Queue: 4 jobs
Job 1
Amino acid sequence: MDKIFVSGMKFVDEHGRERIFSGMNVVDKKEYLADNPSYGYPAETFPFEEFRARGYDIIRLGFTWGAMEPKPGKYNEQLIESLCAFLDKCEEHGIYAYLDCHQDVWSPQCYGDGAPHWATITDQFKPRKPIAVWAEPYFYGKACHRAFDNFWDNKKINRKGLQDYYADMWKHVVKATMDKPALFGYDFFNEPFPGADGGKIFKKIIAGLVKTTITDKRVNILELAKVGLFSKEKPKALDQYPGEVFKNITTNCNELVKNFDENRYSPFLSKMTSAIREITDKGIIFMENNYYSNMGIPCCNKPASVNGERESQQVFAPHAYDLMVDTPAYKYASNSRVGMIFDQHRATQERLQVPCLVGEWGSCAEGDGWYPHIRFLQDKFDSYKWSNTYWCYFDGILEQDFMKVLTRPRPKAVTGEIVSYKYNHDEGEFKLKYKQDKKFKVPTVVYVDRKPKEIECDGKYEIIELPGNIGYDIEFKTDIGEHEIEIEF
């Protein structure tokens, strides 16, 4: 497989081609079970061939700390063997994968997933089971908050800090996987949460919501009450909070988020990066945003560093969801709200001057009312030249109707620098513009999900049918100059 590197704000391969990646999260979040310690998606049964035929070439491969280190310093070797087998199969099918140590509301003891029982230190606070939504412990769960704070404070267990255990766990995983050709990089911590300050942020958001609703003239209170109280489509009441209004609601949280990003998360990120760089110089480092920056609060991460020197191989991997996520009302998801969040992530990317691979996005619901929202997000990613991994894979997903939306034309490898690319779903047309400043022995590669009716370009091309009879790779051979490829379906 081609070696992939970071160059400025883009990914390039060993040949010098600009690369764009698309894929899915494949995450096993189950709690550690001694009688079933292996990975939840066995490599021998995962549909790699169809996955690739859908145009996917990257996987966010998630496991939990609790499953990897069920006892302090004792690692789950069977889980590591399962991950290695998965990475080997990825290589066989030309698919990259980056490792994600996943968590939601800290751990199973806090009614989520992630950390082991021994690393869940809630002190005097007892976890309370969520009533309405899974994320409730983030909002007002003092036990969850304390568990995070003890981690960020590196509280000691048996005279060793929690973060030090975590770093050693990652070093153990890296030693076992670092020579796998499909391994793309390391995502150390899913959606880092600010602990007790996270509870304060939630209260400020509620206060901001009340204040904005009352004082902002862009919010029509009568319409809000009419739709929210009497309409059969109550979720439409949130249309009163488009992107710019929603952004105003969260402004009073900016300083708390900045404090967490700069003083807790950024030092942690550099600590983890330094730990694995003791083992290998391979693998791209993934910088996520904190949980509340999923809502558009500016992310203030500093780039990861090793011995005071900025790490050269790192990527910004933001997440963003609409308020309707994980509900049947996802068909009412707002392009304006989520568009604002991703525009804020774009500003962060430009500040950090690194590539962007959206680590989590999307959702699903019954019917097809949410399909236009998904296309809106895909168009935005294309406009920014962003790679992405959709949330998330489940058994049978590739047979779902909405795969016809997720599967779409895109560039995979471009001989030179991409100027722009765009897929017009309504017109059935894909366009790619790029500048090539040298001759390449390898082609530009564009994935298409069906056979084209017509192709216009100034070079030679070959259409290659992928295994699975779903999609095609089109290989273009072009010379030095500016190029435009047009594909009609």
Job 2
Amino acid sequence: MRSIVDAYWDSKLPIYDITLSKLQKDGINCLLIDVDGTLINRKSSKIPNAVKNWINESKKFFSLYLISNNPSEKRISKIAKELEIRYKFNALKPRKKVTQDVIREIKCDSKSIAIIGDRIFTDIIVGNRCNIKTILVKRLGKDGLPIKLNLTLLIEELIIFFIK
């Protein structure tokens, strides 16, 4: 049995290097996508071109929905509008309520939904709690490239090591 902190797929890649054909082969047709760290650096307002291209290509095959813990509707709505994707902000992940609301709204079978994010203790845990697939990606830096050392993820993995 998989632990609540285990990702279905720890890609070790930035989101824009996730292969759409692999997602399709895994039966996924709906993607819930974290924003800060996953699509854009927390301290940036510019969406990297590689992310825009990946999102535009993904729209051809998947239903997309942004789901962010960020409490700023202004920030998340601006990003969602630029990408032309529905969104929820202040999601309070790993709490399930907002994620479950989104799952009901998109009307997809939970077996065909995956959440993509850069954090174990928010994105991966909420996905596992909602019985959907979870995909861990590399956090993006200000330059739009994956950061080399993700201190938050390192701390999360260290905590997991000691509690397992």
Job 3
Amino acid sequence: MIQHFQGLKKEEIQKMVDSISLITILIAGADGKIDNEEKEWSAKIAKIRTYSNPDVLHDFYVEVGRNYSSKLDLLIDDLPNDTDERNQIISSQLKELNDVFPKLEIHYAAILYQSLVSFAKHVAKASGGFLGIGSISKFEKKWIDLPMITPVIAPEEDEEI
């Protein structure tokens, strides 16, 4: 169980965990195809994030990693092959996170939101450019900042306290 998700319903927790797979499909498939290299690289990124993120996200990425590859494959199989249709469905599903983020502690929500955007950027960089590294395609640029999710920004700490 993810400590910071204790007040959430089971479905809300699943939406948060599935968001990483959905972001992978959205970004890696933005050009119309998702290849095995992109899937493998996204799995590596998710695994790396269990230990190279703020400690507060450790449990989240451990949960994501439990069945990441199988969940990714299942979602790819279930979603339409048409890129525009698939991206609109994923966008709608990710938009549902806007109802979940306010239920989380604001500082945790802000860190998690930033992590999702960062994950999208890493997937985009992995799938393009010279030898498949470093370039973001025009198709990915449309989605890379996850425009369907309202940014979560934590308030500045009161310095007088």
Job 4
Amino acid sequence: MVEIVFLTPFITGLLAFVLPRTLGRQLLVLTGVVHLVLSLLLWKNKPDAFFTGYFSVTPEGMLSLLVISLLFFLISIYTKTYLEHSNLPSENIFTGFMLLFLSTMTMVTLSDHIMVLWIAIEATTLASAPLIYTHRSGASLEATWKYVLICSVGIAMALLGSLFLTLAMDMAKVDVPMSFSALTPVAELLDPLWLKAGFVFILVGYGTKMGLAPMHTWLPDAHSEAPSPASALLSGVLLNCAYLGIFKTNKIMVAAGLHDFSGTILIVFGLISILAAATFILKQNEYKRMLAYSSIENMGIIAFGTGIGGIGIYGAVICMIHHSLIKSSLFLSSGNILMGYKDRLIANTGNMAQHMPKTFVAFFAGFAGISGFPPFGIFIGELFIIVGAFRAGHYVAAGIFIASLCVIFAGFANQVMKICFDPSAAAAPEPARFSEKASLVWPQYILLLTSLILCFFIPDALYQTIVDAVNAIGGGLQ
């Protein structure tokens, strides 16, 4: 049964609220293992949902689910040791909401009904907001309220866009269920005016949650204030869930012959996001905020590639997968840096190569990967997007895209070099020793190694899932 995959972490999440700390940590890891096994079985067998029409196994949803499940499993192992040394207030609340967050994100990937998807994405906001407020500081409270308010406005616009899709059905007198799988085959019959209006509102609404500029303002604060395991999930997984809502809606637009309209809007929002990241990343003095702006850049890249169409969509999906793997690794490494140096300022975290060599390897490799260096997958994805842009005749957009990536790399590299090699910064204090424990380092190594392996070898079943997802939105791959 499809629903069991998101019901399992929901039940264990409720249990975690009342369990002692030690059992809660073990339950977190156990749920990660069970969820990964269930996701793999779901991918292999593709059973029908109990509530047919509301939930379904789709290529794009399955791809996102596999990423979510693998990331949560590795993050849960990291989190167990992280909690032992961080002394978080109300740890059982943190553990419970981590599991509920997993449940809601899983529900997003399996949702087929338009309104169920909306409910699931809204539920991710409610489940993740307490994670941002974990440290109970004034800054974390401000970041939480900003996250809730801005994302709530966005989700309200997405609701309006979803209602416009129903109007597109009513105006055309199309009588089918309000599911993506039912609407896509009859998309050409839908009223194009209301379909366009629905897409615009859904893009702005879910784009707010995805972190697209100029709706991105919640993201740097939320990522910098949340504990590092929560930041890894917010950046590596949550943003993909919002993108999935845009992806499914754009699939209807493509089937309706309106790709030029939706593609142009996606290209514009993608470029604005990349330019915004290029502007702000140059003057960041905190490493977690720097990583947050890097996420805004990568979401812009994914939106840009999706708007380009053709082989650009393949590049966008590749970037989505590898961004999740690499950025999650970077946020986990940032947790080690914070535990070791007790400071979030870049100026006070220098010479990490000497003080924290294991974390340095993971952090520097993650920087190389997220910056688009070969052989990491971001390079391959960006290359496909650039080729797709030139093939489609978007020469000016491609030029802006390439120039912005160069600026971002220069700013990112300047800050990373200070963190890793600057001997004039403050030395790491003694607590840095425990932040180099194996369970606080090897999850990052596995994430980076997975990204590298997928550049050279993609299992046939996984490749077919990627191809099916890309072709569903007009990628035209064989």
